[in-house]
Design brief:
Layout (H helix, E strand, L loop, with lengths): L1 H27 L5 H35 L8 E2 L19 E2 L4 E8 H12 L6 E6 L7 E8 L9 E8 L12 E5 L8 E3 L5 E3 L2 E7 L5 E12 L2 E6 L47
Antiparallel strand pairs: 1-2, 3-6, 4-5, 4-7, 5-6, 8-12, 9-10, 10-11, 11-12
Helix pairs in contact: 1-2
């Protein structure tokens, strides 16, 4: 409507300008009275003022329309709308919420020991600052991120320090508000024992594996496990590099001390067929 009023005012102004131009010629020829000439001048000025008023009305209408369109300042996912069309909206009313999904910030508290161990890497922008994050029942910490911020002081009441990690979430599977567990990754390389998850058994809250003694009998060994590296589980304690671990057929071992006939297979590929016994006839 405001645009139509502006178009009408511009059309009237064009007509008024044309009449004034004609009046200028007529007054020069003394073909019209001075009074009529001044009326046409006034009409031209009034039409020009009407155009300005219509333009101001259009700007005001456009501003009101812009207020009616609400744009989120961030990209993300919108929540449920608290209002519907026709509801009265007061200033400060909550319409909905928008949360950013990619990336996500993960805030966590680390104890003094962890800070003293990883603090140098956290404050040095040139060093690797990788973290692994798990949510829910995930135990392999599949989400990788980077340490983004470490606070400047230890909380004396809890002996912890607040830190923040940034985790990519391109598929949107993670949502803000989830409880997360964070594992700090040491930037320094070190040797570790690795076993396949197929070798691990559970006894209530304890993890254990079966090792093979020199006499061919199985031995139960309780282990403490860490994260994963290239599909294998890190063994923090409970095993040595000389232990032979049962990977295939662990469910067939009913008790420790049960004799077995082990055949070596690669730990990272336990389904690989074992080598043929020495002296076996070759198939034709």
């Amino acid at each position: 409507r405001a645009r139509a009023e502006l178009a009408r005012a511009r059309s009237a102004a064009e007509t008024a300008r044309s009449e004034r131009a004609r009046a200028d010629r007529l007054i020069a020829a003394k073909a019209i009275s001075r009074e009529e000439y001044e009326q046409r001048i006034g009409g031209d000025r009034g039409a020009a003022a009407s155009v300005q008023a219509a333009e101001a009305a259009l700007k005001a209408a456009q501003l009101e329309l812009d207020y009616a369109l609400i744009e989120s300042p961030i990209d993300g996912r919108i929540g449920a709308s608290a209002l519907r069309e026709g509801n009265l909206v007061e200033a400060g009313a909550l319409l909905t919420t928008v949360v950013a999904l990619d990336p996500l910030f993960v805030y966590f508290d680390a104890d003094e020991r962890a800070y003293l161990k990883y603090g140098a890497a956290a404050n040095d922008p040139g060093r690797r600052r990788t973290v692994r994050v798990a949510v829910g029942d995930e135990d392999d910490f599949p989400h990788e991120g980077r340490l983004d911020f470490v606070d400047n002081q230890i909380d004396p009441d809890t002996a912890t320090i607040r830190a923040r990690a940034v985790v990519g979430n391109p598929d949107g599977t993670l949502l803000p508000g989830l409880f997360a567990r964070v594992r700090l990754i040491d930037a320094e390389e070190r040797e570790a024992l690795l076993i396949h998850d197929a070798a691990v058994l559970t006894d209530q809250d304890r993890k254990y594996v079966y090792a093979v003694a020199p006499d061919g009998k199985t031995i139960r060994k309780d282990v403490t496990l860490g994260g994963k590296v290239d599909g294998l589980r890190i063994v923090l304690s409970g095993l040595t590099a000389n232990d032979r671990i049962v990977v295939n057929g662990v469910r067939k071992i009913f008790f420790p001390g049960m004799p077995v006939k082990p055949l070596p297979v690669p730990m990272d590929k336990p389904d690989t067929p074992p080598p043929a016994p020495t002296g076996a006839a070759a198939g034709g």
